[in-house]
Amino acid sequence: MESILVVDDEQNIRFLYKEELEDDGYKVSVAATGEEALQQLEKSIPDLIILDIKMPGMDGIEVMRKIKDKKGDIPIILCSAYGRYKQDFRAWASDAYVVKSADLKELKLTIKEIFNRRKAG
Amino acid sequence: MTESSIGLEILQEVTRIANSTLDLDETLEKIIQVIKNKMHVDACAIYLINESDGLLHLKASMGLPEDAERINLEIGQGVTGWVAKQGTSLALSEAMQDPRFVYFPEIEEEKFNSMLSVPILADCPPLGVINVHSIEKRMFRLEETKVLETIAGQVTGCLRNAIQFHQNQMMLKETQILYDISLAVQSTLKLEHGLWVILSAITMGEAGGFNRAMLFTLNDKTQQLQGIMGMGPDSQEDAVRIWAELDKKKGSLLQWVIKETQRDLYRDSKFNNFVCGLSYPLNPDDNILSETVLQKKPFNISRAKEHPLVNKEFIDALGVDSFATVPLIAHEEVLGVILVDNRYDNKTITEENLRFLARFTVYASWVIENSRLFSKLLDTNRELLSMKEQLVQAERLSALGEMAAEVAHEIKNPLVSIGGFARRLKDKMSHLAKNQEDNDDLKSAANYSEIISNEVDRLERLLKNTLIYSKSGALETEECQINKLIEESIYLFKAGFYEKNINLVTHLAENLPLLELDQQKIKQVLINLLYNSLESLSLGGMLKIQTYQEEYAQKQKMITVQVEDTGGGIAQEVFENIFNPFFTTKHSGTGLGLSICRKIIENHGGNIRVENQIGKGVTVYLHLPLQMGPDYYKN
């Protein structure tokens, strides 16, 4: 079973993602801040990380840089309420970028694609 | 009394007269009186060579009819002309019998039998001739000739003094006029007014004294000499009227010359309109105006019809046969030509006139050059202002957009939760309703949750459309060199830096790769940054601008522009808000404007970073990526 770490400062969003992704058969863990996520990564490494960009304290882009520095090749999907960060080249280091929506179709599709790529590669 | 003592007496008296402080005319009259009385002759006359026409003019006489004053002799003409030409004295007991004699009825020469004629020598040609006439036939003795020659020597001295005095007077007058004009010219930066002052001076009796003046400027692009101003009367009657008025306008030239009210008068004049309609190509051997420009020297044309470079059309248009042209030169570059003529009084244009005119044209050149420089300065200022305004405008719009984005973002997260859970609810309800087909309540509940989910979809679409604003500042990019934009922006601040004693240091890396940039927008950013530095460096200091290429996270190639000042930094509470558009716009648009800079740089895929060292200064880093993002980042 593939494991996914959801990092988002919004409690309800964490809850929504967890419910939906668990329904799809993934093992889901959550973190409310970048710091918390980095701590969790010390203990266990998920197969994929979904990372919100705009968070109090360390923002998603900074968290991503730290993860990429330490853990290298964990795939990361950056998630944001709007597309502004798409233009920031620092965000281009991620494996995908998804604009948040109540309809999780796009997110789920992206997750599948990444896992398929992994399996193929 | 002996002959020699008479001669001595005459000489004594003449010397006394010559050394008195009388003006030249009076001196000559007195000398003639002495000669006539003491030499016992019936008439005496002094002819002087006129500088402008080169003829011998009767300057003073005694014992001749009044009409004699009209006589102008050519050098070599008649006995007087012969003496002038040869520079030697001539005594004739029967003058009318001499083959050199030419009869002038005005002098009633038939009355006189004998004459003695001596040249007034200085250099060759002589300055003039002194004649004495005797009714009684007599042979002038050698002693008498000697006495008259000595008197002529005294007259030479007088003339030299007079010429010297005249020249001094002229120089004094010239200096005064030039001083007045330079004051008048310095007091204006308006091209038209400055030129108007110059042309007025040229055409005023006091200064240049020309009847009309025309100004042509050289258009670099079209290579045409274009008439831009004409000053002078429209007709003979007009001329008389204007000159009468001029006479009343005594007092300093400056006093009336700088009155702008009279400008409309000239503007509407036929002559000005005529000049403004003239245009000649700048070609060698084509026309006299071109030649003046190309040869950079003045021309004094006295017989235009015979001049190879003056065509008939030009003469007909001017309506004169004599005129002069002078080039306008500033910094060794010819700016145009001034043409003058004396259409209404037909006065000959002398070399002295021309020399004087040449001095005036120096001022005209200054006026043109000054106003050119000034308008360049104005353009630069205008460009800066409009940039600043665009920035303020963009900043306000951006502030609005930023607010919308902020609000949208805050709404988006709860909306994702609401919508997401509504979908889950709907799915679960539908699932339950399928199993209990008779339960209408469950069906309704499923329907309700679908309504919620649909409405959330609608809101999300609305937000998405609202957020499209952030792409509204569409970029018009082209490949360009960032250093060039930096240099252009710095140029606009040159004066400001100099004025505030700011030491500008630039280290722009050579051979930087080209960037895909919206030049106008990037320039706005640079100008804004320079402006901020300039404000913080009000007491002077250093501004350092650098460009270099580097890599972000060993992966992303980028060019960095670093702007560093020693302006003391920004207070902490201000610094925390520098990217807050609401904060900056509170200062009626004169704030830091960094929010819009960030927007522009972000739209280029770059980012902006500000380091603040309180008490020292601020360093701004603009990072602009050299590679574009991966495909999945393009929308």
Order of helices and strands of chain A: EHEHEHEEH
Shape of chain B: rod-shaped
Average pLDDT score of chain A? 89
* Range of strand content of chain A: 15-25%
Radius of gyration of chain B: 45 Å
SS class of chain A: alpha/beta
| Spatial extent as radius of gyration of chain A | 13 Å
Distance between the termini of chain B: 128 Å
Q: Which oligomerization state do the chains in this entry correspond to?
A: heterodimer
Low-pLDDT segments of chain A:
none
Largest sheet properties of chain A: 5 strands, parallel
Instruction: Assess the beta-strand content of chain B as a share of residues.
Output: 15-25%
Task: Summarize the helices and strands and which ones pair or pack.
The complex is a heterodimer of chains A (121) and B (635).
Chain A: E1 3-7, H1 11-23, E2 27-31, H2 34-43, E3 48-52, H3 60-71, E4 76-80, E5 96-99, H4 105-120
Parallel strand pairs in A: 1-2, 1-3, 3-4, 4-5
Helix pairs in contact in A: 2-3
Chain B: H1 3-19, H2 24-38, E1 43-49, E2 56-62, E3 72-73, H3 78-86, E4 90-92, E5 114-120, E6 128-134, H4 142-186, H5 191-202, E7 212-219, E8 224-231, H6 236-248, H7 253-257, H8 263-267, H9 270-276, E9 279-281, H10 288-295, E10 299-301, H11 312-318, E11 323-330, E12 333-341, H12 351-435, H13 440-467, E13 478-480, H14 482-499, E14 502-508, E15 515-517, H15 519-536, E16 541-552, E17 556-565, H16 572-575, H17 581-585, H18 594-603, E18 607-613, E19 617-625
Parallel strand pairs in B: 14-16
Antiparallel strand pairs in B: 1-2, 1-6, 2-3, 4-5, 5-6, 7-8, 7-12, 8-9, 10-11, 11-12, 13-15, 16-17, 17-19, 18-19
